[in-house]
Write a structure and sequence with these properties.
The chain is about 0% helix and about 45% strand. It has about 100 residues and is mostly beta strands. The strands form 2 sheets. The chain has a 4-stranded antiparallel beta sheet with strand order 2-3-4-5, with no helix packed on it. The chain has a 3-stranded antiparallel beta sheet with strand order 1-7-6, with no helix packed on it. It is globular.
Amino acid sequence: MIEIPLRADLLNYQQEIVLDKRVFLMSMFWNQRAQMWEFSLATEGVEIVTSRFVILKINLLEFVYNEKRPSGYIVPLSTSKKIKKITQDNLGADVGIFYIDKDEL
């Protein structure tokens, strides 16, 4: 399991991450109206996931069948049992996003 680095100081950003030995562009955006984070993922100019809401313990790649997607799961997990919902302030602090390789499942 790999923890994906997050920027707790920004509400809208993109960064490159390496999963399955390939480079992906991850985008994170705080949706003020919905009061939720949105996640997007692309590689080689192909959008794999677009504006998926980030919810605790829900695989962000669920129902994604694109052949360029990473083979494992990308899951937000809390470091505290007290956290019930991801907020603007706790993502990157008390909540991380983790990549779980298919061999770890």
